[in-house]
């Protein structure tokens, strides 16, 4: 068994508990969610007009969060996504590394599986180490988190806006009940714009 497979099989973090704790500690963060389970996790923690849920945009969460961080320099911006979604948008890590936005953080909830398509094993359980990929893209603050104890330090880095962050959080490969936010893209967009002080379109 390779190292990535060993980590995936021994992951013990409850994803819903981790996300709920993280968001409670980052009350001012603007949050962009990745397709599928990360969206359900964020919504299950309690809805907010600061949350921008992506539907049908697999691979886009880090890029969307990066653009938001460019436009909202005074706010912490947090992408919460999964390993499969980040793997599809792997090039966004290189762009983030090139931009070095100090208010941008990317949190990957890594269960080593493609949850939306039947729990097939993903590349992160077959040898790809996402935190190492992030470091190779120039993201120096790239950490792997193996327990709930890591949430406080991660939240402190997010809130400080003192440097680009990446966290690969090793979560259990559970199939949890889906908590579904609105799928009305216009509603989600306009609510988020209003939270930023802009008029609806």
TrEMBL record:
One Pfam family per UniProt: TPP_enzyme_C
MF (Gene Ontology) = carboxy-lyase activity; thiamine pyrophosphate binding
Q: Where are the transmembrane segments?
A: 18-40, 52-71
Official protein name in the record: Aldehyde dehydrogenase
Assigned keywords, A-Z: Decarboxylase, Lyase, Membrane, Transmembrane, Transmembrane helix
Domain of life the protein comes from: Bacteria
Please give the InterPro entries that the UniProt record associates with this protein. THDP-binding (IPR029061), TPP_dependent_decarboxylase (IPR051818), TPP_enzyme_TPP-bd (IPR011766)
Q: Which Gene3D superfamilies match?
A: 3.40.50.970
Which residue windows are coiled coil?
none
Q: Which GO terms describe its biological process?
A: small molecule metabolic process
| Species, as recorded | Paraburkholderia madseniana
Q: Which residues form the Thiamine pyrophosphate enzyme TPP-binding domain?
A: 54-148
């Amino acid at each position: 068994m390779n190292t990535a497979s060993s980590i995936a099989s021994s992951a013990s973090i409850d994803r819903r508990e981790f996300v709920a704790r993280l968001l409670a500690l980052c009350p001012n963060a603007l949050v962009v969610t990745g397709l599928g389970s990360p969206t359900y996790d964020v919504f299950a923690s309690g809805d907010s007009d600061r949350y921008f849920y992506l539907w049908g945009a697999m691979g886009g969460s880090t890029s969307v969060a990066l653009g938001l961080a460019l436009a909202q320099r005074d706010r912490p911006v947090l992408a919460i996504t999964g390993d499969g979604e980040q793997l599809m948008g792997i090039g966004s890590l290189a762009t983030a590394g090139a931009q070095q936005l100090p208010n941008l953080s990317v949190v990957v909830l890594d269960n080593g599986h493609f949850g939306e398509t039947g729990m097939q094993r993903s590349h992160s359980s077959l040898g790809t180490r996402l935190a190492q990929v992030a470091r190779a893209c120039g993201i120096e603050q790239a950490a792997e988190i193996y327990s709930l104890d890591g949430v406080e330090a991660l939240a402190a880095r997010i809130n400080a806006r003192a440097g680009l962050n990446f966290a690969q959080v090793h979560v259990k490969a559970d199939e949890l009940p889906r908590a579904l936010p609105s799928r009305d893209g216009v509603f989600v967009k306009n609510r988020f714009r209003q939270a930023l002080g802009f008029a609806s379109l």
